[in-house]
Amino acid sequence: MSVEANEIRTRYTVLAGFFSWITLAGFITLPNTFTSLQASSSLGENKGGKFVQNTVRNLPLIPFATALCLLGIVGTIWLWGKHKKNYIWPTRHLFL
What we know:
It is built from 5 helices and no strands. With about 100 residues, it is mostly helical.
């Protein structure tokens, strides 16, 4: 089973990393980043900074972050289902 886990195509390993990062971006990174931009006082001192703050304020972050989370979770579940017979690969690439 360990040998089979090492012989799984590289594209699945890359997809596992991609789906993990998409989930992370949707769950943690995006909402926190844009919230801190809105509260920044140094951006409000010039025209470009005010433009960025107004753009961020009108951006629908929750649906975007939700879509990223769902895409990452659905992709992870798909990879898990595809490689469920070999439990070493999902444990190593999806859950750690």
